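Predict structure. Chain length: 212.
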Amino acid sequence: MSGDLVLYTNPMSRGRIARWMLEEIGRPYRTEILEYGTTMKASAYLGLNPMGKVPTLRHGEVVVTEAAAICAYLADAFPEAGLAPAVGSPLRGPYYRWLFFAAGPVEHAAVNKALGFIVPEERRGMAGYGSFDDVVTVLDGLVSQHDFVLGATFSAVDVYLGSQIGWGMRFGTFPRLPTFERYWERVSTRPAAVRAREIDDALAAEREAGKG
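Prediction complete.
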């Protein structure tokens, strides 16, 4: 598909995940920086993302929101980057499984942990993730088996899940397990990850300097 790639983001948001993914595919893209409570809620942007949040990706006439969906879309739109198993590959099932696990149970467990909400034991059947400890146990086992989620091959799942684990350890949402730290070291030192981090860190610093 032809068309410009545009990332609508904020350097202190889940948009960092989408930028990392864009750096991994290696295609030119343009960035539109939005601010919380102002340009994110402006009518022009709400036409793209009615939730008034970031990230949003525009690829020509296609608009994609939600960080995990953006990762999945870019992996399929640019297969030459090798960030998703081919359709029909036996790895396609695990790819979807862990991407959706990260976007569902992991995301919900992390947010509830940050908010100080604990699912009552007798109500865990109602929560998609059961308990926070359940999620940590599953993730610990997952990232300890191989270098990456799908084995020896890095994929879009590692961009999304790696970001969650890295930020979780940084802000105290996830414990600093040795397995998590080793996994984060493997994925976060990739050249694309470093480039994306440097771009967003510089943008965040500019915003802070502007406030002063």
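Summary: The chain has a mean pLDDT of 95.
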